Amino acid sequence: MQITLIINGEKKTLDVQPHERLLRVLRRAGYYSVKFGDEHGLTGADTILLDGRPVNSQTILAVQADGHEIVTLEGIGTSRDLHPLQQAFIETGAIQSGYNTPAQILAAYALLQRNPNPSEEEIRAAIDGVLDRETGYVKVVQAIQRAAAVMRGEEVPPFEPLQRAIPAPPELFGGLWDLGGAGDDAGGGDIQTRTRTAPAIIVTPPEVERNRVVGKSEPKVDAVKLAAGKPVYTDDIEMPGMLHAALLTSPHAHARIRDIDTSEAERLPGVHAVLTYKNVPRVYYASGGQSYPNPLPYDQVSLDNKVRHVGDRVAVVAAETPEIAQEALKLIKVDYEVLPAVFDPVEAMQPGAPVIHDDPNIEGIYDRERNIVHHIEASVGDAEAQWAKADHIFEGEYRVHQVQQVSIEPHVVVTWWDEDDRLNIRTSTQVPFHVRRMVAPLIGLPVKKIRVIKPRIGGGFGGKQEMLIEDLCAHLTIATGRPVRFEYTREQEFTSARSRHPQILRYKTGVTADGEIVAAELHIIANTGAYGTHGLTVQMVSGFRGLSTYNAPYSKFLCDVVYTNIPTPGAYRGYGAPQALFALEVHTEEIATALGMDVIEFKRKNWIKPGEPLVMAVALGEGREGKPQVVTTSALAECVDIGARAMGWSEKRGKQRTVPGKPHLRKGIGMAVAMHGTGIAGLDMGAASIKMNDDGSFNLMFGATDLGTGADTVLAQIAAETLGVPLEDIIVYAADTDFTPFDTGAYASSTTYISGGAVLKAAESVRQQILKHVAERMLHCNIDDLELEDRRVVHRDGRSVTLEQVALHSLHQEDQHQIMATASHMSELSPPPFAAQFAEVTVDTETGQVTVDRLLMAVDCGIAINPITAAGQIEGGMTQALGYAHCEELVYDENGTPLATDLNRYHIYRADEMPELEAIFVETYEPSGPYGAKAVAEIPKDGVAPAVASAIYDATGVRIRSIPFTPERVWRALRSHSR
Amino acid sequence: MLPQQFDYVAPVTVEEAVQALSATPNARFLAGSFNLLIDIKTRRVAPPLLVDLRKIPALHGIERTASGLRIGSMTTLSQLLEDEEIRGTYVALAEALEKTGDPQIRNQDAIGGHLEYASPSSDISAALVALGASIDVTGPNGSRAIPADDFFTGLRQTALAPGELITAVTLPAGPARSAYEKLKHPAHLGAICGVAVALWLDGDQVARCRLAVTGATDHAQRLPAAEAALTGWPLVEPRIAEAAAHAADGLTGISDLQFSADYRLHMIGVLLRRALVHLRAA
Question: Exposure string (b/e) for A154-169, b if CB count within 10 Å is 16 or more?
């Protein structure tokens, strides 16, 4: 049937079917800014304006919109004619992956149409229905306030993020640290701005002063296209003849497939292929996107005759439409022999428990009968001697649960044969090179016949450090010869993607009478679900992180990684550290309290100091022997001091604060310290190429994958700084296995440090080539007298040539050659970033509800190459970590069926639920990093849960040793405490 | 036709809608809840025909009547929330609306569809029970009005007969004071427990009161023991304590993996006390 709509002011007549949702019809008509986030519309990615009001286009039929007016982002502004909202989103750093930016801008646009001067509270309420997994909403709110002021016609000064204080003015350390952040309140509403866009920065090293591009809050290089809602994501292409894939998943937690009958499905008109274990080669692999050789065991195959969790793969279909593919799934008859299942890792290790991996061909399982996939034992130091020094021994058990990454863009891939009969894989991945190498044997093609393209990514957070669905889509293209599109449903994101490993952690710590930690043992039982992917390395990181901050001379790590029949955990931003640091920091605070020592003093006395070696570094590498590590730079002490002053720690801690007139409320303040890594020492490698163009601009190509983090921008800043050009002269292309050099990918907080190191080397090489050409062929001088600055090569005698002249001369006129370099970088070091994390909470003692009022993180990430994107990492990371501490939880019924399979039952923080978020950078200059940088991406995940636990203890006197702090859990803890 | 596909009609009168539905077995009204489309998408139901009620003018709008307020069933939650009289007189309903969903959901969802879905954690249902609303329905056998007290009958169960659609919600003259208190489920936007209170005062005496719970039980319902404890007494601490202590008497709680029935039932008293203390101060 035909419908007529006014879309962005233009009358459009469209052919639709009655069942089609408006989302699909709009995307088919080319309005790609409207995104799929979930079937329920709860991410809000599908927001449009219908007659001026924001609605979800996924939950409205196209026919229902007949005769109505629709506005999409394309109707608000374009990349050449940006709307003030788009402009403000770019300037303030409100865009990370940009996947939900169109929806946020539309929601804000609708608000500003009816209320040109909204308060912050009104702004937060207006964007409440657009979930954001990346920014913590800080800069989004700022952007809307700024745009509102511009639209009201007010004089709005050019956007200037807070300047660095070089060196830190003494008064900053003297208690005059005003972090109220009221200065940016453009809204003029009823409450003050609770957030500030720019981080406060205190620079300790002077090196950064010289820089022109590095250390500046440059707008992201991809921000304009993202703000304009251009079709840049995996799913934003339409290919002729493209088929749609759908995955049949297991309804049983553990079953053998006796037989599958696909004949009826194959007969359904429009179905082109049905794949099962019967017609896909049985090739063993591990899906984690890791360096060669991937850690054992290889316990997965593309499609198996056994299923090991609800949501496990059974069959995959390619059909003309998504509806036909779904219907085909229903016609597949599976004969299951249901097996007993086990979900608890302790039960799974007992004799007689169901054996989850009984295939004898799989190597590398530690104890198949007891479902123990890995058993890790590592220790350093003299146990007997160190225990003998201990005057007190403390033990504690802690439990952490399973949470999901919830990138708003689901896993999505499009595969096709190109004109050279090479298989192209366009995929939303953090690891394009690992995907190419890992998928090759599964689909029976050599690596040279495969090209993997990473377009813009709508968030990953580790969930896309996997070769998760590319194999199935590729199998379908091979089977049909047609392009195939395969996107997970939101439910499959919860049942059939990855998550964070749940763990039981037991600490035993020896302390002397004067509070020195002399011995520490950590025993972890980790649940790796149905498959072992990332199971070894996540847990090794847990052990390493859990035993590094306080670095006891005798340290021992013992760990069993156990198969169960829950959906498989994997990589999730933090990668084992959030689990360990929750336990470690709560345990450490308990010890301090028991000894009657001030918590901060006890930690300060024991935390690792610059110059000290990390005792467990060699014993606990990631899947192989580690490299010796020494702390080279640490501003942890300063982070704690500054954070404590900013929070008013000494005025608030231990004061049993109440709320006047609300006797059921208690207020508390808490803290934790965190130490993370920067890349995997001796393992991670990045490479980059830089090529000079006729006009003196440069192409920068690398395999590193920006998944919204701003990595492309940071790497371009490093190149621009080195080459003496503004950022706009660097044209970034990444990542594409055909056109960019190798990179291990976006994980382990490695991109700035490792890939940035490669960019720095390549840029240095290009710089040398430029100087050499000028010295020998143009100015005929000594190379040492030349410098690159402001797009020129300048001689110390004042002569200069422009880079354009150099390019034209070297390409066309004399000694013609392409000025170009490729460089690789790896590091034997992984210099730790450090942070102090503070939290303030209000606990409702009658309901157990915990409200987190404020989170502040003071962090030493080395030099922040781009303070705004770095602050975005902190704010977004803290918000995810808050969900881990507070409300997110994957839960199952007694049959192992996941209950939290949509965003109605798995809550991620909304704009109007947020605490105040603040980031303070206390910079050090890390000599091994590009321009002094360390990592910042993962450390904000580490300290929030223990800081909130510490604050709940301060408020109520009750210590809670498991997360999340949901109301009933807290209420029960309070009740048993008061008895 | 594939099960996820269906036909669609959008009649302009209630009679046509009722007729269209009864002419096609398993047809469903599209009454303004996004839940139905999700249930179809996730293959929980597969109606061959959807009868959209959105284009029936008689089902839209808020009308002042001699006895109170008549709300057309296709009025969106946003439109209700913007209504001055609801904000001023039916405060419990306004507070419940504010706490329901997100802006897009409130712009899209109509009150009729919301009630038909009968979510156990609906905020609005408790407010309507407390305010003494009645639900007007029309079906093949004519029209009737169902008191909100009797409308919700069980977990996602209502008193709607097959083929009946909700045409309006009518609210009687407003109470002196009303409020809605909610403990939000951290895993969704609904209520772990929500309590709506409506009080009719005679001086400082509670002449009449209607109290309702949602979230803690499988459907919204009155709190008779607590009502008895308050009626005829001044709104003072011992009576409030008495009402809170007996709030959950006779009720069966529901549970999920994060919140037990015990906890939810206990919260009824906690929230009731807060609502009463709040109204006493107002």
Answer: eebeebebbebebebe
